From TrEMBL:
Species annotation: Dendroctonus ponderosae (Mountain pine beetle)
Pfam family, one: Ldl_recept_b
Coiled coil regions in record: none
Protein name: EGF-like domain-containing protein
UniProt keyword list: Disulfide bond, EGF-like domain, Glycoprotein, Repeat, Signal
Source organism superkingdom: Eukaryota
């Protein structure tokens, strides 16, 4: 049903894994999250979802979640960001295996590496704007400049059987090898001075260097740069940025998001109620924060108040709630069995 919406809840919300209706489920909002990257300059979090075929971004606390890339992406895996150059880089393990780059607002997208790849991961960028990555199937650590030039192999061969992750600190590259069960380092330019730091550590799939000497930079996004919801860094040197909105919400004037989708589809989905905005160029469901549903089978919206009404055949009841999950109430629960359909007369108040 398409309705006019006087409300919208920004989207640190919710997807439930529908494996067993009798199991108490943790509220998530993911299908198969793979890669994670933190923009330490603007305090934003980026991640990929391989099964949902999308890349998302939010504030570091998980609030104001926004869909960033959804077209021509198959199985996005590892992701990294480099605020110094204003770029994000990710690997795609789908039918067309590749490494791509874009500005951190998702614009100016470009294929960076698309040949001689198998399982690219461990993406990391050093201060000279050189990208390094591991490839477990090809048993190598490679590098390339962010402009696409200067591709080369730093380490390869039987001594580096399954590198799965990497990071850069000063003059060294650090990596984990899940077959060799080691964490090692070597000179990032020559590949020499190789040292095994940890032995017999199984199943290491990701590593990161934490250090307090990383240069602090001033980002226009630290003060949101006039953005009503989310500010994404684009070019740090030119103070360029882009304002973004919660998933499904439209950006009106370059800085301000609408309070809600003007048109959307709402659906009862057993243990949750979902909304799909029709105002944006993508289709993404937002699960509303109405919890502890058992078998929601039908739903409607009061156009006057914005309240959501639904039937629950497991509890033999009709209930309602505000879109943000508050003011929940049971409307009918006696002398009612397996209610299947519901309709709201918003004008006649029935």
């Amino acid at each position: 049903m398409i309705v006019d919406a006087p409300w919208y809840v920004p989207n640190d919300l919710i997807r439930r894994d529908l494996k067993m209706s009798t199991v108490k489920e943790e509220i998530t909002n993911y299908i198969n999250p793979k890669g994670l990257a933190f923009d330490w300059v603007s305090d934003n979090l980026y991640w990929t979802d391989a099964d949902a075929s999308k890349i998302e971004v939010s504030n570091s606390n998980g609030s104001v979640r926004s869909l960033l890339i959804w077209e021509n992406v198959d199985k996005p895996g590892d992701i990294t960001v480099d605020p110094r150059s204003g770029v994000m880089i990710w690997a795609d393990w789908g039918a067309d295996i590749r490494i791509e780059r874009a500005f951190m607002d998702g614009s100016s997208r470009k294929r960076l590496v698309y040949q001689d790849l198998s399982t690219p991961s461990g993406l990391t960028v050093d201060k000279s704007s050189k990208l390094y990555w591991t490839d477990a199937d090809l048993s190598c650590i490679s590098f390339i400049n962010l402009d696409g030039s200067g591709r080369g192999i730093l380490l390869t061969g039987a001594s580096i059987p399954k590198p799965s992750a990497s990071d850069i600190y000063q003059d060294h590259i650090y990596w984990a090898d899940w077959m060799g069960k080691t964490i090692e380092r070597a000179n990032k330019i020559t590949g020499k001075d190789r040292t095994v730091l940890v032995k017999n550590v199984p199943d290491v799939m990701g590593i990161k260097i934490f250090h307090r000497t990383r240069k602090q930079m001033i980002s226009p996004c630290l003060a949101k740069a006039g953005c009503s919801h989310l500010c994404l860094l684009k070019q740090l040197r030119g103070n360029e940025h882009t304002c973004a909105c919660p998933t499904g919400v439209k950006l009106m004037d370059g800085t301000t998001c609408t309070n809600s989708p003007l048109n959307y589809l709402i659906m009862a989905h057993r243990m949750d109620i979902r909304q799909i905005s029709l105002d944006v160029p993508y289709m993404a469901d937002v699960v509303l924060p109405i919890h502890k549903l058992k078998m929601a089978t039908s739903v409607d919206v009061d156009r006057k108040t914005g309240d959501i009404y639904w039937t629950d055949t497991s509890e033999d009841s009709i209930q309602k709630s505000s879109p943000n999950g508050t003011n929940r109430a049971t409307i009918l629960t006696t002398e009612i069995m397996a209610p299947e359909g519901i309709a709201i007369d918003s004008t006649g108040r029935k």
